[in-house]
Amino acid sequence: MRTAAAPTCVICGSEGRPKYSRLPDRQYATPGEWTLSECTNPRCRMLWLDPMPIAEDIGQAYAEYYTHASSAPASALTLVETAKRAYLAIRWGYAFEGSAAEKLLGLAAYLYPWRRVALDFSVMWLESSRAGRLLDVGAGSGVLVARMAGLGWQAEGLDFDPRSVASARRRGLTMHLGDLDEAGFLEGSFEAVTMSHSLEHVHDPVRWLAEARRILKPGGRLTLATPNTRSLLHRLYGQDWFALDPPRHLHLFNRAALAMALRQAGFAAFQIFTVARDARGQWRASRDIRRTGHHEFLSAASLLQRVAGGAVRFCEAAMTLVDRDAGEELIALAVK
To answer: In angstroms, rounded to a whole number, what is the distance separating the alpha carbons of residues 144 and 224?
Structure first.
């Protein structure tokens, strides 16, 4: 895989200094060792790969990527699924076909903050009243596209990986192949643009954010999730933190760096916060990497791992109440 030097921060232009060196691909078999640099600007502290895989070769890092698999079939309408749908009706206004008594099950989510965040994430913090045309950028095999289409959105996906796009199209989803800044969508085309763990994969995140703003209608929403470099588990695991994910994660953000990127892209109205939604999975993967140097993403967790991971998630969620940077994921909600 060919690389190019990336000595300066794409957000603020400051010099970088090596933070982690000689990191292998800890998930798949991409050859090479990688260095992550940290921005020397104390008001930024972005992390990025230096040298960085060139755009023409980055596809090699996705040859075995998990999004090539088809998504699991929809869950049966169990009591838990009923409670989930009821919560989405109560909190976000989505249609619910159950009885009034069944709808009360949705209130149970308010007793479990981490479960409520997972449900908010499942619709990317978007109200049903805004339903219209939606573009999921970095859609993979189309899990979010299918979910939002089922909730009444005119949902489409975009991804640069042809195998992922083919997998989604086989399931009848509307998918576009390519990069956002080359897709050619008309200005003001969408009520919403979502980016669920895709911004960290691109060479020029500010350009992507600016393009997302351009294709949004006035008042349209951008919702994105990306790893948080100031999270509790990054502090604990350092170079073994799973979300570093070299060589696929090209740029990694903290709250300040993401705010600068959004402003440079033209967004003036936005909020950024962290959540512990994925702390259980991140803990298990980071623990595997520290112990063995590798994590199998699609492997099943043992009962003990699920219980221990749940405890980690609870602790991290509690910590976010006093340390707003503790959560594993940064969530940004922006309005054009």
So the answer is: 12
What whole-number distance in Å separates Cα of residue 316 and Cα of residue 129?
32
- For residue 35, is pLDDT > 90? yes
- Non-local (6+) Cβ contacts of 272 within 8 A are 255, 258, 259, 262, 330, 331, 332, 333
- The DSSP 8-state label assigned to residue 312 in this structure reads H
CA 253 to chain CA centroid, Å, is 12
Could you give the C-alpha distances from 336 to 192, 216, 232, in angstroms and in order?
A: 10, 7, 31
What is the rounded average pLDDT for all residues in the chain?
Answer: 93
d(CA 196, CA 148): 13
Read off the tokens for 244: 């570093």
Helix (H, G, I), strand (E, B) or coil at 159: strand
Q: Concatenated DSSP letters for 185-228?
A: PPTT-EEEEEEES-GGG-S-HHHHHHHHHHHEEEEEEEEEEEEB
Per the document, the length of the chain is: 336
The two three-digit tokens of residue 301, written as one number: 């967790």
pLDDT tens readout for residues 168-203:
999 999 999 999 988 999 999 999 999 999 999 999
User: CA 248, CA 201: separation in Å to the nearest integer?
Assistant: 6
The pTM for the full model equals 0.94
CA atoms within 13 A on the CB side of 217: 11
Distance of alpha carbon 88 from alpha carbon 94, whole angstroms: 6
